[in-house]
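Dear colleague,

Thank you for sharing your sequence with our group. We've completed the structure prediction you requested, and as agreed, I am returning the results in plain text so they can be pasted directly into your records. Please verify that the sequence below matches your submission; if there's any discrepancy, let me know and we will rerun it promptly.
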Amino acid sequence: MKITSYRPGPGMMVSAAFIGPGTVTACTLAGANFGFALIWALVFATVTTIILQSIAVRVALVSRMGLAEAMMQTIVSPPLRWLAAALLIAALALGNAAYEAGNISGAVLGLEALNGKLADSKTLVICGIALLAGALILFSKPRWVERILIAMVLFMCLSFLATFLITKPDFGAIFGGFIPSIPDGGLLTAIALIGTTIVPYNLFLHAASARERWSEESGLAEAQADSAISIGIGGLISITILATAAASLFGSSKEISSAVDMAAQLDPLFGSFASATLGAGFFSAGLTSAITAPLATGYIVQEIFGKNGTKASRMPFNIGALLVILSGTFGALLNYKPVEIIFVAQIANGLLLPIIAFFLIKLANDSALLGRHVNGWKGNAAGAIILLVTSMLGFRLIARALGWWP
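Please find the predicted structure tokens below.
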């Protein structure tokens, strides 16, 4: 199979999902505190994400099943299957609900960077963002949502790239950051950069979206190309954010806690255009993640409780997506930092990441399911490395949530 042309597709939704406020903040702090030294962590995370998402897409297009469906099918015992389904929904839905408030709040912060404080209209802005996300998910066609997210990712890329170029970075130092090294105190930051890029729910979102876009196995080559290019663009966005912070803030001894703080510092250094482009990018990051988090939850609930292709199957999707949007809206309105929920979500995601990676590799080697599309030895070797790294990352997330690891 050959690709004669490239059109952006569902892979852009993955980039839209992992380039959220958390990723922007993590990249900002990495650049401000450690310069260009941790760029390699983003490169590793991007390549790993491409490999895992590629497997998810392959499973979806060849088996014609969603990822949750395929995983449940590998569990023979019905009681265990239902237990696994309940744990999967609880972990992913809870995690997405906990972070949805951060996504909406991040979009608001981006607007504040563009237009000053929104104290008088903040409630209205939060409700407006939530209604926009809900309307796009519940009432529009999947292809419309996909196209809107593609446009926003490209806009995000241009915004962050423009900010990056304004700061006139040292490209020699940037390329030096591709060589793996961990500066003093940089281990947790390196792991955080990897953890914000490799997101479990993206695997389900991508598989479901790809199956809707390509109705036959013959679309596999195009889907794989879309995955690699789109996620590569997402990785480039992360690198430009880190490099912008490194070029403008590293060594300045200024207190930085988020990208909005960086926008305030850029204004006197490079003019209002730099802070405006950064604010626009941060707003887009929050809005796109506010759409994809409930979208992914809806797909997972639908695959487990609804039968695809029937009108009834849409109800579980709507319920799952709506619950995430509502919980995130209330969290943002109350200015609530859901420490307890995030505590549980960190543990759940820490457990899910290596477990889902294991199931993906198992599915990739299932000849009854994939036929001639099963993994070769190179794929399995890459899978083993990824499983090891995700297991270490999962342990770190759990240990940090429990206070064992600062």
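Summary note from our side: The chain has a mean pLDDT of 81.

Kind regards,
the structure core
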